[in-house]
Design goal:
11 strands, alpha/beta, four-stranded antiparallel beta sheet
Amino acid sequence: MFVTRFAPSPTGRLHKGHAFSALTAWGAARAAGGRFLVRIEDIDPTRCRPEFEAGILEDLAWLGLDWEQPVRRQSDHLTDYAGVVDVLDRRGLLYRCFRTRKEILDAIGDAPHGPAEAVRPGPHPADEEAVLLAEGRPFAWRLSLDRAREALGGRAWEALAFVEEGEGPAGERGLIRARPETAGDVVVARKDAGAAYHVAVTNDDDLQGVTHVIRGRDLFEAAHVQVLLQALMGWPTPVYRHHRLLTGEDGRRFAKRDQSMTLAQLKAEGVNPVTLRAELGF
């Protein structure tokens, strides 16, 4: 069965771009006779707010969307994601990285081979790591591409791919070979903040049986990392459908900073949701 989801982060109210994405996924599920889920991706406690979550659900209902209950809230399932990180760690696929973002950016400037080398800082020497741990320094768990390639084997690594039913930023579509190396050794967890986005998303897509990931084109590159995690965890890879991004009159894509374009503001100004849906092509 066709299963898709709309998965906003409650860091602000929805805007027109979110409405377009939600309607695209909801419409695809209805056309396929499938299921439409709403998932609240709120693993960042510094930016996510309960009032924004309530506002998001209010906005979706105002648009005329319906979805299955209960809504999955990621902050209620942090132990699930910690379990994934633990599996990857026990398989020897992760390493601790104590380097700050500034230190990594400085290394990019000094690297003789350019930025591609800098996103793969590699593990610290054992004696250095022991000292840093003893000092209680914060660190991130990074996924080692070298170890992941070795764990999968050369053939499986070369076979990493996903089906794109929409279109990537450069017109990519069809069967696409995944290139997780372009993202480097991504952070999968932090000592003080739990699991990162890619872990939570891939875990939930598998758990909820998502068959089609329908989202904005700005997340196209994330698919390359997520395909690797799916392969490492033995999870199926959904079909991806990345859609165009809406832009304003100035040519910039809508963002949460554009308060005048939030659905709450449009509603307050008396905009009819049927009119807005027609404007967005639905």
